[in-house]
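Hi support team,

I submitted a single chain yesterday and got back a structure, but I'm not sure I'm reading the token output correctly. Could someone confirm the output below corresponds to the sequence I sent? I've pasted both exactly as they appear in my results page.

Thanks,
R.
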Amino acid sequence: HQLARVSADLTELDRILTERPAPDPTQEPAPERAQQPAAPVVPAPPAVPLQQVYPPQPVAPPAMQYWPQY
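Hi R., thanks for writing in. Yes, this is the structure output for that exact sequence:
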């Protein structure tokens, strides 16, 4: 179940990453948004988990085997 949740998180993070490029240009002209701590804080946390997940990815294939056993 944990692996499944991780995969879902990865998909969500991917979507966020794709969405970031759009808001980035809008934030540049709008310093008010940049000042908000929410904006800078959001990109930081996801960046760390992404790096940690990439190495463990090899563990994902074995997870597929567990699914049929379940």
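A quick pointer for reading it: Residues 23-27, 33-60 have pLDDT under 50 and may be disordered. Let us know if anything else looks off.

Best,
Support desk
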